């Protein structure tokens, strides 16, 4: 199983530069465009990051903090949408400034990216091919690329009628925790998948209530997996995640489960190959292979698709529906792992249990 972790924010970490902090302008330098775009047909705004390699006589980390070091002076770009070989639409790229980039080696918090937009009622055709064309610095660099879109990725289980049974009625050892299946339908043009669950809960203090969300990384699969389309959610991992992620706070009176969002993201073969090449290596060798699917640039122009379903803790599908079984809810509220977190059930059907909220 290859741990790809490719759904971390790709744009924040893929600008590569030399390990050396000192550059000399005496050597020959060739300016190279670096382009990153991961298109999701479900989105209406599609971002493309366009930068260049930079060189300065001095400390490279200081140059990395200067925006002009990695921007082109002029960028003209367009993306064409083709279906069955016929051009359907063409989009002109516009620039915008992202203002929430985290601090790091490269300049922050502002960063210029490019984008094109589709109407919510007329998104990209999932069966389309997209062609990218860039003119950088008035013809100094012409960059082209094409990608087929990923589509058809869909979470199929847990369904609305499914209760997650993570624990037996009495938990005495690890064997009393249970696994549940996370299932999805494989997408077209997708070869790698990432599974995550976002757990939202309510936190109550004397001052009021606050809603918080934490992320549960279930795992990843690629086309070599023998169980592609199915991955287990481990019961004990669920409770340990909550214990390790939620700090005990003496001001908290109680907590209640609000909802769980189940997400799968399918990535294209080009994205799969790009991340395999760029993932950290345990070798001391500095010469690594390079992957790009762009002509005239480094980087990747490719596709993914994200799909998710949200299950409310109680009463979403029907008045009696619940996401966690009674036993699992009891373990959340009273079990050895999570009882210090002060969870209780606010589901009316649980009012006769001693884990019901007062």
UniProtKB/TrEMBL annotation:
This is DUF4249 domain-containing protein. It comes from Lishizhenia tianjinensis. Keywords: Signal. Residues 1-23 form the signal peptide.
